[in-house]
Amino acid sequence: KIFEQENEFLSSEGKDERIGEIIDRMYHGINEYGHCTVNCSVNVQDKLNVIKLSYVDMSDGDQSMPPIGDSDVPIVTGDLQDSPIWDLSLRELYSFLDNQKPIRLLAMKSHIHIDQVRKCVRSLIYYGLGAVISPIQYSNTYYVTEEISKAIYDRKLQEECVQYVAINAHDPPPLWEDLFNLYQTFQTGIQLKKLFVVEKPFRKNINERRLVEFGLVYGLLKRLHKYPIYKNPVGNKPPEMLLPYINRNVLGGQHSFDDICVTLDFKLEKVQHDLEFNREFIVIIQKLGV
Asked: For the segment 210-229, what is each residue's pLDDT rounded down to a tens digit?
């Protein structure tokens, strides 16, 4: 609209050939590459009036890509500066992507609708520039997967891991052997806090959080998720009487502790304590996703 008001681009005579050229470049760019950048200025040296379009086909991704929940944390794995996926929403969201904020908090901080935030994250995943993991808490429990055996022969993955988890680039980098041994210590039933208290990875220039991030993104680690269930759903004592801040809609076994904490804006330690030590609730532990 502004371009037309300032330059009469569509209404003035003699522009038919230029418009046809622009449409043709859009058509071929979108169909051949999935994106295009077209200079629409009358003077081709003027780079102020540029159209950038990108097309993302989510028809196949809907089946292969897992749903993104409110508590999922987007992890940026590639360089977005030269990426063709930039749009207005992602440009606004970019400064809030710190590999720590869950989807719901990103929506609140950026003032972008949560569904649009999900679409931006799905685009990152589709282009191989991002992933999603569950929130990392010291009370979480993780276990090493069989993928760790493949990492023994993958030199590129080893180098990426060493670079990713290093605390200080000026200090000697961590040894892959130390990282491999650390991943091997992730056993079912051991909380992250207890594991790191014993192993003290920071002494070897290893960032604890980024070690877990890398393991989750590349499938070296998976997390045990906890799902609370109210044992008396049709009884006379609703869960709200036991815990005023909670409601029975999140106590059917479909919502993890992460989902409940993000939805209700409560700390994980409090929710876990209140539900795990109350006889009216049971907690199911499952190996699902990251």
From this structure: 999 999 999 999 999 999 98
Question: Residue 105: which of 57, 70, 56, 156 has the closest Cα?
Answer: 70
pLDDT of residue 147: 94
Are the CB atoms for 145 and 221 separated by under 8 Å?
Answer: yes
Q: Which two tokens stand for residue 267?
A: 């700390």
Tell me the residue type at 73.
V
First to last CA, the chain: 45
CB atoms within 10 A of CB 104: 18
3-state helix, strand, coil in the chain (%, to 5): 45, 15, 40
In whole angstroms, give the CA distance from residue 191 to residue 177: 22
Strand order in the sheet with 142-144: 142-144, 221-230, 281-287
What pTM, to 2 d.p., does this model score?
A: 0.75
CA dihedral 198→202→208→210, nearest 10 degrees, is: -160
Residues 6 or more apart from 85 whose CB is under 8 A from it?
Answer: 35, 54, 56, 123, 124, 127, 129
